[in-house]
Amino acid sequence: MPHTYLISGTSRGLGLGLVRYLLSSSKQTKVIAGVRNPSSAIDLQSLVDDFGNERLHLLKLDVENAVENALADLESSGFLGDGGLDTLIANAGISNALPPPSETTPELVQANLNVNLYGVMNLVTSSLPLLRKGQAKQIFAVSSTVGSLGGLFSENSLYTAYCMSKTILNMYMRKLSVELKEEGFTVVMYSPGFVKTDLTGGYGDMDVEQAVKLGVENVIRKVTKADNGKFLDVDGSVAPW
Ligand SMILES: NC(=O)c1ccc[n+]([C@@H]2O[C@H](COP(=O)([O-])OP(=O)(O)OC[C@H]3O[C@@H](n4cnc5c(N)ncnc54)[C@H](OP(=O)(O)O)[C@@H]3O)[C@@H](O)[C@H]2O)c1
């Protein structure tokens, strides 16, 4: 039985890597790749050539704007047939706020929240009807251990607004896991590791290929309903809040 994923932020970085790995590692996988500018997404277009448009559908999706319309476009595209979505991966994110707390402005916090929190909320709300129609009923948010207030709290005082956005995201997702539990959903936040992408300026412990393989095999394809509400690290272990 095919398993259908909707992933946001797939033009580059981890999102693009997830699309490529999910499609290449299982013939049963179908992916809707959310992307702000499909016409300039050369790497995604070549994945459509490789895997075929019956397995990969590019969906114009900006998580800050008109997300409901984008999901309506998906429904009317015919890509889903009579089925729904199995798994949502809310991956799109930004980190454009370097300053420490004393120089962090409300505007910087707002800019990070617009994508990293409100973008996820928009996506969840608009996708829920299709996720309810699907079999797996899974929602993942790509969070970060930089949002940890406890065991993995970072003593680095920079990127305050970004860290704050991930802490609040985790609270939203955890509350969501409580609400959707009775319907059989699995709602999980996971940290993808420190990965060499544009977001980190190319710094990291892993390249995208390594990170997405670990994330998919240890988290995305491994979780069960018993993991609902957990914050997981890329090795599958439970991360501290
Ligand atoms: N890299 C790491 O070490 C690391 C660590 C922890 C967590 N994360 C998280 O992992 C996720 C992916 O990060 P990444 O490292 O792959 O970053 P990236 O290479 O900078 O890619 C970010 C992606 O998000 C998209 N995006 C940004 N704003 C968007 C919006 N409003 N609507 C839709 N898409 C939007 C970008 O699209 P455009 O090309 O159109 O801008 C791009 O595809 C983020 O949530 C990030 O916080 C990353």
Automatic annotation (TrEMBL):
It comes from the Eukaryota. It comes from Rhodotorula toruloides (strain NP11). PANTHER family: SHORT CHAIN DEHYDROGENASE, SHORT-CHAIN DEHYDROGENASE/REDUCTASE SDR. This is Short-chain dehydrogenase/reductase SDR family protein. InterPro entries: NAD(P)-bd_dom_sf, SDR_enzymes, SDR_fam. Pfam families: adh_short (PF00106). One of its GO terms (molecular function) is oxidoreductase activity, acting on the CH-OH group of donors, NAD or NADP as acceptor. Gene3D superfamilies: NAD(P)-binding Rossmann-like Domain (3.40.50.720).
